[in-house]
Amino acid sequence: MVSSIVQYSIPHGLIGLHTSYGQKMLSEATVVNKNYTLHELKQIHPTYCGPASLAFLINAIHAMSYINLTKELINENDIVFGKQKDFFQHININETGMTIANISSLTKLLGLSVHSYYTINQMKPKKKEYDTTKLNAMLKSKEGNISLVKTKKNARELLIKNLKNPLSGVIANFNTSLLGYKIKYGHFSPIAAYHKNKDMFLIMDVWPMTPPAWVKTSRLFRAMATVDSDSNLPRGFLSVKVQIKNNHLNKH
């Protein structure tokens, strides 16, 4: 993170991680991966929040050795210009960023396992806003692990389940304005922890001007249950895991 960049103020209802209360919540967290909070990573390019989040996650779950890397990733450029660079020649990332499907493909290319969760608000369905035919075809396809999340409760359970696994991590895709920020855009960032009493998740925001913050599950769910105009599909989150192979186990 560049210290000279002025950060956005934390919206009402969110709790900044680097406040005294935010740190207290971290110490009380029901589920937490402190590797995220010890080594924060911020994106360099305006539309590289997806690759930056993936680099952040890889460092946090110590997945480097599983994808044949010898050290931590410094920023998204280590992925964008790495051995999978040919992937980016087919994506107009400089103008539009990436979709959940793009991040899923990139994750698989790196040799990691990924499950994509597309989130809709069952209480306030707005099916006309996204391509239901396309979504249903993807859900029925055997090409990848894809699920639909319809309730806040279901989202909470799945996020906690993945956070508890030391070999997995979660990247959320959400609309920033529904978290309370004045700017409105789709964004990716990893989730690092959950505080049960407050029912809040810790988002380690990769945008340089947005500090990490605790967010109510209900607010995060609403922000994920929005439509990505590039894919014409709901946003949601991705669960990324290392794929343990027998030859890797034999080395330890």
TrEMBL record:
Print the keywords alphabetically: Cadmium, Metal-binding, Transferase
Q: Where is the Peptidase C83 domain?
A: 1-245
What superkingdom does the record give? Eukaryota
Any idea of its EC number?
A: 2.3.2.15
Primary enzyme class: transferase
Q: Which residues form a coiled coil?
A: none
PANTHER family given in the database record: GLUTATHIONE GAMMA-GLUTAMYLCYSTEINYLTRANSFERASE
What's the name of the protein?
glutathione gamma-glutamylcysteinyltransferase
Q: Which organism is it from?
A: Hydra vulgaris
